[in-house]
Amino acid sequence: MNDTATAVLDALAQDRVLSIVRAPRIDDVVALTGALSAGGIRVLELTFTTPGLTGLLRDAAEAASRTDGVVGAGTVTSADQARAAVEAGAQFIVTPGLGPDAGGIVEVAHRAGAAVVLGALTPSELLTAVGLGADVVKIFPARAVGPTYFSDLRGPFPDVPLVPSGGVNNDNAAAFLAAGALAVTAGTSVVTPSDVAEARWSDIRKNAAAFCAALGNSTTHDNA
What we know:
Layout: H1 3-15, E1 17-21, H2 29-38, E2 43-47, H3 53-65, E3 70-74, H4 79-87, E4 92-94, H5 102-111, E5 115-120, H6 123-132, E6 136-139, H7 147-154, E7 162-164, H8 173-178, E8 184-186, H9 193-197, H10 201-215
Helix pairs in contact: 2-3, 2-10, 4-5
């Protein structure tokens, strides 16, 4: 594993949380990144469902380079998207599942030095993700299986870093960590599309801080 991928894994292991932002538009990604960091979340995933993602990644990555932030691209479904994302500065790549181009995505990302988080749900899919070279496996949708499922997976897969995504909130996030997850995802419960559209950065900061508090995290990143 290269230095960048190691740094991504270290940040996830230390902070135990990353934010996934899904919004129809992001007018000020630097302010968004700063609000999340000030609330304690420094690992940010921007997705290809948001128009103009590569430009957003460039701006966010530049801002992150001045702090200790980590920026990645999500909802990546092709090697071409992975290539565009890493060229724009993405430090990690996330897929929603194991599509036909999953192997190509891993190859492109690893060649560029980025970490790869492949999406899976079943044990068979998890095995496939590991075989393809995933650095982390995202279990999605986590709301469909719950924290106990992660305890079950730890038996046959004790060394595979797992991250739940989908339906993780302040009420259940700590339970996923207790069940063996490396980190959890903070989605629309922390960053709502309306807050992004209305530039309510203080609300996003407060939501991020509340989510981190629910995990027992006390450290915030006051470099916004």
